[in-house]
Amino acid sequence: MATYTGKETLYEYMKEDIPDGKHTVVLGANGENVSINIEMYNFYGNVTYTGIDSLGDDVDDSGMLVLKYHDNLTIASGAVFRPKRRKKGMLIWVNGELINNGTISMTARGARGTGQNVYLYKNPDNTFEYVPAVGGLGAIPLADIAHEGVSAANATGRALAGGGAGAARFSSRDNMPGRGGNATSYSGGPGGGGFYDIYMSAVAGSDTGGAGGNGACYPVNSVGGGGAGNPPGNDYHNGSSIGIGSGQAGTGGLLIIYATVYTNNGIVESRGSGTVLRKAGYNPQAFYGGGGSGGGSVNIFYVNANENGSYNVSGGTYSSGGQTLREIFRGGNGGKGTVTLMEIAGPISTDVRVSTTTPWISDQSIDISISVTHESNQQVYYKVFVNNAEIMLSDTYVTPAEINIIIPVNYFNIGENQLVVVLIDENGIYKFVRISIIRENENTYSFVRRFNHKEGYITSENIEVIENHGIALKTPGTEFVTVDLPTIHKSKIESVSADCISDSVSPLKKVRFMVLKDDTYYTYNNGWQEADVSIENGMTKQQLEAITAEQWVDLEPSWFLHTFAVVIILQSEETGVGLIKKITVNFQEPITVLCDTITLHAPDKGLRNVLINGEYQLKIMPGIAFDDAEVDYNFYTTPDKIRFRPLNFGQVIGGSYTQIHAVEVINGYDDSDFNVVLFASKNNVAAEERDGYGLLYDSMRDVTRTRIEFSLVPPPNFDPVYPLTFQLDRLSSRIFYVRIKPALTITGDDTFQIRLLGRVV
Amino acid sequence: MQTGIQKLSNLDAVIISQSNPDQNFYGESLDLTDSMLLIKPGFNKDEVYVAELIINLTLSDAYNSGRFYIGKIQNPWDITTVTYNTRPQIEDIREISFGGGNTFSINATQEADGYGIILWGGDIVVSMVSQILTVTPTVFNLPSTVAANRKVTITWKRFKTDYYIRRIILTRNDIEVLNTEDINSQYVDEAMDYDQTYVYKIYAVLS
């Protein structure tokens, strides 16, 4: 345990390195020293919280729960980020980004104890943001008969709210319902007790975040309810306490968040507790409720915020729980607490310039220049993330520093990307620079320029670009911004729209538009007209947006042949005010046209379709083929030398002639005539040439060897010649005849080859 | 997706008459009785390829069915000066049928590559001539030889269009085989199988 002094605010202490444990920090501010006991926890690395009410120790009212996340904290959907027990505030510090997808809560976690001025943050004007020691006052009960309890007023500033007063069946000068308790810096006010008595008053809620007031009730058939608080007040019936039952435990508490980036997609709350109808006794007929406790105080400090969530700091209210009685007077509601979100400057300040946020296909990189300053001149380094993936980590820089970062466009997907440069100082405190990068390609038909950063095409020194506010002037006057439009792969323009201010006379503010085609400025006024670039000649937003697709085509039907730009003319007497945030150019999308269809048939082996006079005719391939003599293109061997099927001599008898078979030889060349020689071979050994026939070397004795005979003359005048020679002109065919007398020595299947030798004539 | 680019328009036409062979009847009634109707197509054939040309004749009255002749005009002519005696050369004459009624539609695609269309043979009076013209930026060249296991080069004619061609897509049996910004490229099919039919389609992505 240690005591830390010398700082004015919790914000300053949180930038220090305070170890885990229970410590005291002394806030020396506004001429007082405020000692606050803290229960400190440090978390390193990115943390995702998925629990419910699991934070801090098990001791009520022991001090402020301080949770310091040195990187990022995500609270998951369904999680409830709340202390286990009552605490004198819960402080969450996140160096990086706090993403709340669940519930951050100090509901019913207000603590008992005397309030203190809790100094949260010191403004640049030396004033303090603080939660006051005494918050909203509790509700004063009415001195009247038969009334519901008075509700507490809503709190103001950063205060917590007071408790509601009890209800009454009747009141007298001496006996009254209980007053609501006043709020402290750590607790909404507890509720006062409900009242129906002639001998005693109900009890007021505690003014130090303690108990709700006890009720008071003497009739046997009624109940005077206790107020909500820490703990709730007792219910009374028949002149005696019947214990806690109606009043609910808890008061709204103090919640403090510091985050560099605060993203709320869930609920942030610090609600007071209420009361419920309680039946008691032998003949329950009436209930006079105690008051609800006050709502808490939510204080959020951020450098960047993304707000999509909700807040609830309501005071406690009465609920019947679905029950009825003859008579019910409900207790007063606790007051509504406060929620304050405040943008603060982190220790790191930046001035960012980026070459382009819409890289086109011709861009190779995105160049970022960041001027960095630090309030304590600490060193910084940076990380670069593209779509949550870290792509760069730098060395350290001494501040002030000029940091130039070049990021190849290949890191970016087509479409929208999130580029984040995280600057980190020596204390680990982040500064986020977020840039939305839209990488375009030819399939993008909506070209959008968002003016969030000073990109390369904004050259005037008199122009500044304010994130989320657009282009503004630094000094009164007239300025021009030329936004080049893509033309490569772009179709005709469909429409153009602008997100800009409307004209104002006092102070003067105007935004006008012209179109720059190649080197000529145009404006549209019942037709396109050339004009000098000036505020007077420019079109208003309405005139620009009224130009139809047909009128854009009138300007230029062949968009891709030219260069185009939209010229934005800004005139303002007011400086630092965003004049235009965005301009959108919608292009006509391309159409896909079926131009032509053809059907091609690839014929069977050895054949081709040849285009003759615009039509395909079936032809054989170039080459010489052996074909069936009777059936066209029933090849034995195709022109392209594919052995398709054998010539089958069928059943043969050794020593006896076979039948004579006809074979067609086709010359498929359209440019060559051949002298053809046919001979036979077996196992690559040519047959022995004899007088009019060939003999295969398949037996020892001539009389038993296989004889091959060829003839150009068909039977019955078969006239064997060996080898057979003839002329085969281009694109012609010739039929020859063949028979064999097989060897006596061979049984079973056997083959030989008929070979063709062709010489070009 | 559309096939070709369709353009609708009314056309200029004139009659010439053998009985008044030296008279030009431009601007007068298109009465085909003993006359010939010359129609100027509504496109420049140097700029487009014609995928389909439908000539629609709106008739002055309902007529009975009949037969006509249509021919392709082979040389340039001037609609304001042409006469029967100076009529342009005609070829590819064919006979067409008219089913009767108030309108007469003729598929004149095969006459579209001439200098106009000539029609005669019926006793009708035409009140308006219009066209449904489908033009296309390119058409295939037919490969000189088609064979399996051989390189077959698929090419197409030079693009004619006043549109910007962003890219072309070639499909083979409806499977994309080429998708390129190089619109004058070609595709070599080396994988044709024996005795198979292949349908190629070429698409243009226009801006």
Which assembly state applies to the chains in this document? heterodimer
Main structural class of chain B: mainly beta
Q: What structural category characterises the helix and strand content of chain A?
A: mainly beta
Could you describe the largest sheet of chain B, including whether it forms a barrel? 5 strands, antiparallel
Series of H and E elements of chain B: EEEEEEEEEEEEEEEEEE
How far apart the termini of chain B lie comes to: 14 Å
Beta-strand percentage range of chain A: 35-45%
- The level of helicity of chain B is under 10%
Radius of gyration of chain A: 48 Å
Low-confidence stretches of chain A: none
Tell me how many strands of chain A there are: 57
Summarize the structure.
By secondary structure, chain A is mostly beta strands.
Characterization of this structure:
The complex is a heterodimer of chains A (761) and B (207). Chain A is an all-beta fold and 761 residues long. Helix content of chain A is 2%, strand content 43%. Chain A starts with a strand and ends with a strand. Chain B is mostly beta strands and 207 residues long. Chain B folds into 2 domains: 12-136, Jelly Rolls (Sandwich); 152-206. Chain B contains no helices and 18 strands. Chain B has strands at residues 2-3, 5-10, 12-17, 30-31, 35-40, 49-63, 66-73, 90-98, 101-107, 117-120, 125-136, 140-141, 145-146, 152-156, 165-172, 175-180, 187-189, 196-206. Chain B is elongated and about 60 Å long. The two termini of chain B are 14 Å apart. The A-B interface holds A 442, 489-492, 557-560, 588, 590-605, 607-611, 614, 616, 621 and B 1-5, 49, 51, 136-140, 142-148, 150, 152, 154, 156, 162, 164, 166, 169, 192-207. β44 of chain A pairs antiparallel with β18 (196-206) of chain B.
